[in-house]
Design brief:
heterodimer; A: 287 residues; mainly alpha; MetI-like fold; 12 helices; globular; B: 333 residues; 2 domains; two-stranded antiparallel ribbon; 11 helices; 2 strands; flat; disordered C terminus
């Protein structure tokens, strides 16, 4: 009798463990399906030429391949995300330093809290906010590479701030105390001791933010807008990789759909590569 | 302090160093305050941009079901309904799956299994939304159209016979594109959020909680049910609310599979529109008059305020829990 009840409990335990494992598998099916389809469909168009060639318009003239490349969009993405990083990384890291090193009072805590809240604001609303702001100040450059960079920067800043803060909080206090005991001024302690021992997390946060910006679409539709020639100046509309995938995916031309898959494969490869590298680098440091 | 040092150079350097210290503090403080200013500007700019419709219609737009900006019919109800429906579908699918994942990875599986699988689940969060949309159009939508939705529709008929109510859930023509498919894709996208934060909540449960239950002879699952889940439930609620916040604000994947129809969906299979997909899909083409622009910005403001409220609530829960669990930063003396 007692044995039976225990046996049932043990079997039930295994059943629940099995169900929970099935949940993990169920979540991984879409992941594998996305990666698999991107590889199968993207590999067909992927080549070095694909990375540099001008965009295809999906119209096939006789004897001319209708498969273009993503050169202009890739270049525009690098430039616009680069400008956004130049604006957001220093700001985010400085704010993160303040919150971790000086922000142990109610104001610091509330800034930290609201920064965290801001990471949850929808990116499309950020796009409309930046658009409305540019319309208010200078309507002529509301659709420009510059407004696109600002929108991406607004999305990146809270991410960089929060990861920097979390990363620096992990640095043991004994390191700070040691530096003070040597008479090193506080700003140098922060920059040379705290920041350098927490740099793994800070760099990971920066990479996360850059990756997020590189795959972003919604805010760019309302700010950088689109240009077939990619980037033609900070005050001109710019066509980036994310919006390219969106437009090509919804187009009826098979050549453009193939371009969308190729561009997606490149984003996925970048993402996998960077996330694996970051993970291995961090494990070496902390664990 | 060091005033007693003799050489003037030394004194200067003490002053200089205090100056540097202060200016560094000032610089970082100014930047941190800048973030608060940015958030304030965020709300104020949208309020300013929406003042035309706010002044003329107030919040009555939210209950008005007619949307035709060229005719100055600016009702936002279809998009609020679309946002709620897709988010609820996403939560219904994602909550049990995410909890199963969190329990398996943090309580039941050995470390060598939970580490790689946990990493894979987190990878789902790193894939850009537009790639989900692309995959949705070419893989998920055909799958839903041919394999899932016909089955669901055949179920619903019998449910109607049993309960004698005609709730238009799984009825109507099947397109593949529509509210239900959007909800499914949202579910996939919020699973990593809910499961990762639930894992944090489970991790914050003190080990003696588990040992006590194990010591009484409980099995692994019984330990989880009795002493871990009840302890972590506030954090899990926070995780679910954060997932809801992500689902409500998610744009591109939804825009690409929801079908973009500016009406209240007749059933879950019908095409619809969320607030986010409305802005992404229609702002550039339909915001032609100042009044229509203002209506779009009012929609964005509603979306922002909802997600801010959700995030404030959920993060307050999660933060309190993490502080309780003693994981609150190495700097807390």
């Amino acid at each position: 009798m007692k044995f039976n009840r225990d046996g049932r409990r043990r079997i039930f335990n295994w059943v629940v463990a099995g169900l929970c494992f099935l949940c993990v598998i169920a979540a991984l099916v879409p992941l594998l399906s996305i990666i698999y389809t991107a590889f199968v469909n993207g590999a067909r168009v992927l080549s070095f030429n694909f990375l540099v060639a001008p965009l295809s318009f999906g119209v096939c003239a006789p004897n001319v391949s209708c498969y273009g490349g993503i050169g202009p969009a890739l270049a525009a993405t690098l430039i616009v995300v680069g400008v956004a990083s130049a604006m957001s990384l220093p700001a985010g890291i400085l704010a993160g330093i303040y919150l971790s090193e000086y922000g142990k009072h109610p104001l610091g805590r509330s800034i930290s809290f609201f920064t965290d809240v801001m990471t949850g604001s929808p990116s499309i609303v950020v796009g409309l906010f930046v658009y409305a702001m540019f319309v208010y100040f200078d309507r002529a450059i509301a659709f420009s590479a510059l407004s696109g960079s600002v929108a991406l920067a607004v999305i990146m800043i809270p991410i960089v701030t929060r990861t920097t803060e979390e990363g620096l909080r992990l640095v043991p206090n004994t390191l700070r105390e040691g530096a003070y005991a040597l008479g090193i001024p506080r700003y140098r302690t922060v920059l040379q001791v705290v920041l350098s021992s927490g740099r793994g997390v800070v760099i990971t946060g920066a990479i996360l933010a850059v990756m997020r910006a590189a795959g972003e679409v919604a805010p760019l539709l309302l700010t950088a807008f689109w240009s077939d020639r990619g980037f033609t100046g900070l005050t001109q509309p710019a066509g980036l990789l994310g919006p390219l995938i969106f437009m090509d995916a919804t187009s009826p031309s098979p050549a453009l759909v193939a371009t969308a898959w190729g561009a997606s494969l490149i984003l996925i490869l970048l993402m996998l590569g960077i996330s694996l590298t970051a993970r291995i680098a961090l494990r070496k440091r902390f664990g | 302090m060091l005033r007693s040092t003799r050489t003037p150079g030394r004194t200067l350097s003490v002053r200089l160093r205090r100056l540097f210290d202060l200016s560094f503090l000032g610089l970082t403080f100014a930047v941190a305050l800048g973030i608060l200013a940015l958030l304030t500007a965020f709300v104020l700019v949208l309020v300013h941009g929406a003042q035309l419709t706010i002044a003329r219609y107030g919040i009555s737009l939210l209950g008005n079901p007619n949307w035709a900006p060229s005719l100055n019919q600016l009702g936002l109800l279809p998009f609020i309904v679309g946002t709620l429906l897709t988010s609820v579908i996403a939560l219904i699918i994602a909550i049990p799956l995410s909890l199963g994942i969190a329990i398996f990875l943090s309580e039941l599986a050995p470390r060598w299994i939970s580490e790689p699988f946990g990493y894979l689940v987190e990878l789902l969060a790193a894939i850009p939304s537009v790639i989900y949309g692309l995959w949705g159009i070419f893989i998920l939508v055909p799958f839903m159209r041919t394999d899932v939705q016909p089955v669901l529709r055949s179920w619903n008929l019998s449910a109607n016979k049993t309960f004698h109510v005609n709730i238009p859930l799984f009825t109507g023509p099947i397109f593949g594109f529509g509210v239900f498919t959007a909800g499914v894709i949202l579910a996939i996208m919020i699973i990593p959020t809910i499961s990762a934060i639930s894992r944090e909540a489970l991790k914050a449960v003190p080990q003696p909680q588990r040992e006590a239950a194990l010591g009484l002879g409980a099995t692994g699952w019984e330990t989880t049910r009795i002493s871990v889940l009840s302890y972590a439930r506030i954090g899990i609620v926070g995780a679910v609310i954060l997932g809801l916040g992500r689902a409500i604000g998610e744009t591109m994947a939804v825009t690409m599979v929801i079908g973009n129809a500016d009406v209240i969906p007749a059933s879950l299979f019908a095409p619809g529109q969320t607030i986010a997909s409305l802005i992404a899909n229609d702002f550039l083409s339909e915001a032609s008059s100042p009044l229509a622009t203002s209506a779009f910005i009012e929609a964005a403001l509603v979306l922002l305020l909802i997600t801010l409220a959700i995030n404030v609530g959920a993060r307050a829960l999660v933060w309190r829990l993490v502080a309780q669990g003693g994981g609150g930063g190495a700097n807390e003396v």
